[in-house]
Design a protein that fits this description.
With 133 residues, this protein is of the alpha/beta class. Helix content is 52%, strand content 17%. Helix 1 packs parallel to helix 3 and helix 4 runs parallel beside helix 5. The longest helix is centred in the C-terminal third of the chain and has 13 residues.
């Protein structure tokens, strides 16, 4: 299971705390993160996180490439809806790729919790079937 972890600056603490709370689930997955977010998650949890560039420097697009190649199973992107982002087109493109390729994506903690609990129950087995074809 490949999981992307992305957070805007004012949501980084929330995502780090979320991963800490569900560390036992994330420990079973391959984790990918953008710049500082990936580093902070690694420092807080000790989990291995493959780090890409920061979002504004192309990290969102790097994760988008994995989505386009069907190499990502879940995206947790804690967005800050109250702050304009200079790389908004990249964000929209990443979310569009999730829609095109049927990749579950959460943009807030409430949805992320539902998806992570589904992951824990084994509800993502269909992703393994798709990836093995």
């Amino acid at each position: 299971m490949n999981i992307a972890l992305i957070a805007h600056d004012r949501k980084k603490d929330t995502l780090v705390n979320f991963v800490v709370a569900y560390r036992h689930i994330f420990a079973k997955a391959n984790l990918y993160g953008t710049g500082t977010t990936g580093l902070r998650i690694h420092e807080a949890t000790g989990l291995d996180v493959h780090r890409f560039q920061s979002g504004p420097l192309g990290g969102d697009q790097q994760i988008g490439a994995l989505i386009a190649e069907n190499r990502m199973d879940l995206v947790l992107f804690f967005r800050d809806p109250l702050m304009a982002q200079p790389h908004e087109p990249d964000i929209i493109a990443l979310l569009r790729l999730c829609d095109v390729h049927n990749i579950p994506v959460a943009t807030n903690m409430a949805t992320a919790e539902i998806l992570v609990k589904a992951l824990e129950r084994g509800d993502f087995a269909w992703r393994e079937t798709i990836n093995s074809q």
